[in-house]
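Quick entry, no commentary yet.
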Amino acid sequence: MTPITTFAERSVALFGLGGSGLATALALKAGGARVLAFDDNPESVARARGEGIETADLHGIDWSEVAALVLAPGVPLTHPAPHWSVGLAQGAGVEIIGDIELFCRERAKIAPEAPFVAITGTNGKSTTTALIAHILAQAGRDVQMGGNIGTAILSLEPPDAGRVHVIELSSFQIDLTPSLAPSVGVLLNITPDHLDRHGTLEQYAAIKERLIRGADLAIVGIDDRPSREIAERRGDRLIRVHVPVHPSREAALPADALIAREAAIHEADGTRLADVSGIGSLRGAHNWQNAAVAVAVARALGVPLEAIQAGLASFPGLPHRMEEVARRGRVLFVNDSKATNADSTEKALTAFRDIHWILGGKAKEGGIFPLVPYFERIAHAYLIGAASDAFAATLEGAVPYTRCETLEAAVPAAAAGAEACGAPEPVVLLSPACASYDQFRSFEQRGDRFRELVRALP
């Protein structure tokens, strides 16, 4: 735990008692603050009481005595409408912050030189966060990894000059962190996402930019327009990362750029830094970008190239993100259940050929129409879930498909189809391009079930 001493002997209101909210309440209490916590879920309130946290309906407290409202990142700050607790705090002139802000203030107080790597982006941030932490740990560093990737930041050990915090940040978390100033700030990419919570793409991008603006060193992927513009505004102490579509574009890159091309990471002058060819957990151009960013971060923190290459080679990947589940003869089985929209599935389709594709679920806007250019990579499609009719209409005449309805029917059908084809390495790929909620509680449950079914094949 990181005790938060910056609010010692003051009252702090807290709304949202999920995992990170409960960790925040405990950290504030450990640092000497009086915490008044609440949640709309009575079970969460009861759990907090069981942990010794004082709870109170924030409608009835004296806001004139409150130093800050700590808001869980899942609670609306601005869109589609501010949560009622936000209105109460604003009416009393009370600042509204999140758990990342508490960490930043504690770091500034007790260990301002402690290395702090913050990673954001629409896609790839969890893989990049885990890869950076893995490389540093393999190189012998004391690493604490958390944030949006799953472990609440205040559950981690406190900042220290000899300890590196590698933290994934969502736009919601950044929005609640006005003093965000990491040692290294990473922006991978920006595509439309969470617009229901931020209003417009411009506002969403502006929130992401805050992470870069306050960083000592900024590392920015420049393969989308909003990110390129952010890099241009940043100016110095910047490393650009580029995955070229057209080699001619490389000539315009400045000397601070890293280029990820054909599974290798190069400096702008052509100097080769690392190679990810043959590393199953880092397949595909999107993972080349993730690897290039990790190389840049590790170099900035003084890790030798030999240790970086060793860390890349031993990276196990993350569950449900192009996870290699098994090989059976020539057939490779890949769990990409985290791909809940077409943009995410595109990354998997570009990484393989001779694909026996399991897809479907609760469709997102646009369906799989953006994936039409990749249909030539697909040997056969196996449809599951509520999106079957719509996806069949898009596949009709372009890709042979089978309506399987359930994952239990799709896995053996895809396995048999892959085994029967003549390709040297056919791939059974679960990359649904859909939310899971029609048949599963979460993408994790869907991916776990795929793994079970693959391992149960005869």
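second:
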Amino acid sequence: MQNKSLKLILGLLVLLIVGAGIYSGFTSKKAPKTNQTSKDKTVKVGVLQYVSHPSLDEIYKGIQDGLAQEGYKGAKIKLDFMNAEGDQSKVATMSKQLAANKNDVLVGIATPAAQGLANASKDQPIIMGAITDPVGANLVKDLKKPGGNVTGVSDNNPAQQQLDLIKTLTPDVKTIGILYSSNEDNSKTQVQEFTKLAEKAGYTVRPYSVPSTNEIASTMSIMTSKVDAIWIPIDNTIASAFSTVVSSNKEAKKPIYPSATAMVEEGGLASVVVDQHDLGVATGKMVAKILKGAKPADTPVEIFNKGKTVINTKVAADLEITLPEEVTKKAGKLIK
């Protein structure tokens, strides 16, 4: 009887040991499948664009390309895109909505959009897409050590290069008018920098600000009678209504030096610009970096501050400006 009980106990122990081995092998085979599911998880990226304009549209396209280059494409990513169309009240509403949509990362294209997102969320990672002055806009504490939930890409206006271009193409210019939006913090910073450099170079600078696109035509009619040339910073409000700037200058025929390729194509004379698509690609790659585990607080802001020359040869001909051969040869783009 005792032998039977002993055999029964030993048999049960053998069954338990064998069963444990089978279960262990089963779970170890299943583990890779769980990891694979994690890798294939669809990430959500919320994007807020401040206004529709070719330059900002190109940044958004670049963001998508940058993400794709890092493997985030197709079913692996869902883009939650919104456009405030220059309406500040929509910026606030859409920022809150994007923050509430449980996006893994938020992206703001242009300063007002990034500021709106930063106000809407203090814990979700936020990536700035082409913000001229992140510190001045109170988005980061320091470019090298952002310190919060915001980092991104900065498109520092190559003001000195633009001044050199003005001097080369229009040497008779003495007074430069600046047209910008009074509601964009990034524009105010650029105006200060450009004015300082221009006055140091001997130019008289006359800044003209507008609160909205509705005042552009009337401001242009005043400005064109008092200046020899017009410079426009990276300014989303002015960019969105640049056709009004061009039409308002039709009679005065003052050379216009904007800060984006699209604006030169629309009727500006020339500019030294930072490539908008490249900015977008860099932004998309930074989003991918955060998705892979990097922290915005420790991720330095990437700065683009060197540009390429873009010249509208048709506008130059209309203004009877002779383009130096050394300038056209080195130009990044000639618009005909």
